[in-house]
Structure formats: structure tokens, C-alpha cells
Amino acid sequence: MPLQNRVTPFGDLAAVAARGLLMGNRGRLHDAQRRIVRYAQGRRWIACLTRFKGRRRTVMSPRSYTELFFLDETVALAAGHRPCVECRRDDFLRFRAAWTAAGGDGRSVDEIDRRLHADRLTVPGARRFYRDEIDALPDGVHVEIDGAAWLIWGGALHAWSAASYTARRAIGRGPVTVITPQSIVGAIRAGYAPGVHPSAD
After folding, report:
1. Which terminal CB of the chain, N or C, has fewer other CB atoms within 10 Å?
2. How many whole angstroms separate alpha carbon 143 and alpha carbon 196?
3. Which of 128, 129, 176 is nearest to 152 (CA)?
4. DSSP characters for the chain?
5. How distant is the alpha carbon of residue 158 from its chain centre?
6. Is the pLDDT of residue 135 over 80?
């Protein structure tokens, strides 16, 4: 049976078999039986490579962080995770440069994580969203339409699913609920280009 460790753009955890292009963590979320017992632990939410320096891990080991999986980087960012400083250092440096260009304090990872934590949650376990004009949003941002997550990419909307992007539709006009945290949207606008699953192309 699949473990409950696939992250949706909304930041929720689903039990599905597909792994995705990135892994990451937001602390130890599981118990000794590998059941999810908390939404997050701490404010350092990161997105990592699935392979790095030959390291191997047993997923959801006791007394270890919970390995989470994302379809792609746009989903990780929508859920409120940022690039890992260790295994994705070049991506993190690009992200920090765009974050700073967008007016964020990028002097330290702690400052970035502090701001991100305020942007992604209203209270522990409850996501923060905001409204914006859909045609003003950059590629790489996820929005909510009729309860579902859609990726803005290449001049179109792409429906997210655990294994791939499926339906495609025109972007249109008007206000929409933005899932991706506002500070990350700012970094994308300032030039950070997130990785996307091939099914969006």
C-alpha cells in the first residue's frame, strides 16, 4: 500500500504510488507505524533531488524526517517548499537571487524560511492563499479553479494530477485564488524558472 507522502500543490499529503521528479521534507511527520501524525514540524520546508552522492534511505524510518515527493518543482513551490541548499545549491542560489530582486530579505536561509512560513500558513496546518488577476501571473504558478489545482505554463492552464498534468485549457481573465505563496510568485516574476514535469510541455 502506498505511503502518505506525495505532496499536492495545496500542501496536503496523499497516498499514491507515483513518486515524481523531486523529494523533500518539512520535518518528521510520521510515527513508528509510518502513519502521518502532523502536517509539518518547523519552518524549514525544502525540495531536494531524488538522487544525491549515492545516498540511500529507507523511507519514513523511525526517528528520521519524512521523505515527501512532488510531481515537479512547481508543485513543491506551490506547497511552500524552497530549493535545498545542499543538494540543489545552484538552484537555491538562483532562487535567492530572484527572491532578493523581488524585494525579499535573502541575506540568510533563516530569513527566507521565516518569510515563507508566514506566507504559506494562516495557522499551523492551514494554508494561506491570496487573490490575483490570472492573466497577470507568471508561468510556474499554481492556481485553484473549482477546487482543483491548475498550473500556468506556456500560455495555458494544465490540470495537476499525482502522476502528470492532464487536461489543458485557456487561461482567460479575471481574479483567481493563487495557491503558490505570494513571495515565491514574486521570485518567479523576478526570474526564477522552476522545473516542470514533461507532461506540461
Report:
1. N
2. 15
3. 176
4. ---EEEEPTTS-EEE-S---SEEEESS--B-TTS-B--S-SSS--EEE-S--TT----TT-TTSPPPEEESSHHHHHHTT-EE-TTTTHHHHHHHHHHHHHTT---S-HHHHHHHHHHHHEEETTEE--EEEEGGGSPTT-EEEETTEEEEEETTEEEEE-SSSEEEEE---SSEEEE-S-HHHHHHHHTT------GGG-
5. 16
6. yes
Q: Which comes out higher in pLDDT, residue 125 or 108? A: 108
87 has a pLDDT exceeding 80: yes
Strand partners, 38: none
For residue 198, the one-letter residue type is P
pLDDT over threshold 90, residue 156: yes
- How far apart CA 159 and CA 169 sit, in angstroms, is 8
Q: What percent of the chain has pLDDT over 90?
A: 88
Instruction: Report yes or no: 104 and 181 within 8 Å, Cβ to Cβ.
Output: no
